[in-house]
């Protein structure tokens, strides 16, 4: 922009979300037991979008959150056993698609 002579000094230099360094987030995480507490320690309202953003920042920075019980769920969608295979064995031992 400067090469075209456009003044950009009135633009914010950084995104408001980046005003907290990874180290500041790590300190807040270490002193908290929930994402809501992390947001409060960073001085931002714990709204759903804010918590999602903080969660992504924590994951991107590789910050340990083992003390957060809600973030240590299994990443699988199903609980219990895996979904059943849709193929059924025929009397001859070959596999055939079962009806859906």
Describe the structure using short key phrases.
two-stranded antiparallel ribbon, mainly alpha, 100 residues, flat
Question: What do these coordinates show?
Answer:
By secondary structure, the protein is mainly alpha-helical. It has a domain at 1-67. It has 3 helices and 2 strands, in the order αααββ. Helix 1 crosses helix 3 (48-61) and helix 2 (35-42) crosses helix 3 (48-61). It is flat and about 80 Å long.
In brief, what are we looking at here?
The protein has 100 residues and is mainly alpha-helical. It contains 3 helices and 2 strands, in the order αααββ.
Helicity range: 25-40%
Report the major sheet. Answer: 2 strands, antiparallel
| Discrete helix count | 3
Can you write the helix and strand succession as a string?
Answer: HHHEE
Secondary structural class: mainly alpha
**Using DSSP, what is the number of strands?**
2
List the SSEs and their pairings.
Blueprint lengths: L21 H9 L4 H8 L5 H14 L25 E3 L5 E3 L3
Antiparallel strand pairs: 1-2
Helix pairs in contact: 1-2, 1-3, 2-3
């Amino acid at each position: 922009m400067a090469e075209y002579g456009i003044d950009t000094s009135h633009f914010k230099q950084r995104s408001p979300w980046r005003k907290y360094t990874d180290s500041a987030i790590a300190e807040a995480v270490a002193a908290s037991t929930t994402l809501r507490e992390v947001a409060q320690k960073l001085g931002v309202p714990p709204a759903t979008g804010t918590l999602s953003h903080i969660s992504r920042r924590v994951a991107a920075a590789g910050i340990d959150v083992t003390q957060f019980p809600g973030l240590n769920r299994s990443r699988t969608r199903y609980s219990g056993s895996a979904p059943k295979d849709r193929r059924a064995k025929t009397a001859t031992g070959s596999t055939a698609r079962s009806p859906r």
